[in-house]
Design a protein that fits this description.
Elements: E1 5-6, H1 10-15, H2 17-26, H3 37-50, E2 60-62, E3 65-68, E4 73-76, E5 79-81, E6 86-91, H4 99-114, E7 121-126, E8 131-135, H5 140-155, H6 166-170
Parallel strand pairs: 1-4, 6-7
Antiparallel strand pairs: 2-5, 3-4, 5-6, 7-8
Bound molecules: iron/sulfur cluster.
Residues 16, 18-19, 22, 164, 168-169, 172, 174-175, 178, 180-181 line the site of iron/sulfur cluster (SF4).
């Protein structure tokens, strides 16, 4: 499983590839060491799913571990509405949808397809406003970009110099552990 990419790290990789290196080094440690306040609410929002309390409908599948041998991906879905063939990722609040979050949904979709599930629609669901936000399935060009992105992810060398973007470092949950920047994070 060593070469499998964790789907949950795709968005962080776009934010800063070095954060994935830090995540992998420190993932065994107590999460309270590196999770900063804005992440806590999102984690709680996921608890209903992780504890399988969100839905009791028979045709809904929640918190299902998924993987794709073909793309080397592994992760977990939030909710698949089997009857509607709809894959949903719920979040407490959605101010903006980042490309990495869309990649995460596409990755889950590819895993489910390879596992034999029928998925035709994707969406984010904002818990705080009870709003569903549909996401398009990838077209051919987008799919190629996604495949290239997975190659970049696998080839990333953490010893290489990176461009420091202060505004990112200030809001980075790995800031306290990072040896690439002197910028302090805003949560301390
Ligand atoms: S603190 Fe800055 S350089 Fe370090 S992992 Fe975070 S975003 Fe990347």
């Amino acid at each position: 499983m060593d070469n499998y990419i964790l789907i949950s790290t795709l968005n962080d990789f776009i934010f800063c590839p070095y954060s994935i290196y830090l995540h992998n080094v420190y993932m065994e440690t107590d999460e309270s060491i590196y999770y900063a306040t804005p992440q806590v609410r999102g984690k709680i929002a996921h608890e209903g799913i992780d504890k399988k309390t969100y839905s009791t409908r028979k045709d809904d599948i929640t918190s299902l571990p998924v993987f794709s041998e073909k793309y080397g991906l592994i992760g977990k879905i939030d909710l698949l509405k089997n009857k509607e063939h709809l894959l949903i990722e719920r979040k407490y609040q959605i101010k903006q949808i980042f490309q990495g979050q869309i990649y995460q949904l596409w990755a889950q979709y590819l895993c489910l397809k390879e596992m034999g599930y029928q998925v035709e629609k994707l969406a984010f669901y904002e818990i705080s406003t009870n709003k569903m936000i549909p996401v398009e399935l990838p077209n051919e060009e987008e799919f190629k970009k996604f495949e290239d992105f997975l190659i970049q992810f696998r080839m990333y060398d953490p010893s290489k110099k990176i461009d420091i973007i202060k505004s990112k470092c200030m809001h980075c949950i790995y800031n306290n552990l990072c040896d690439k920047t002197e910028v302090s994070n805003v949560y301390t």
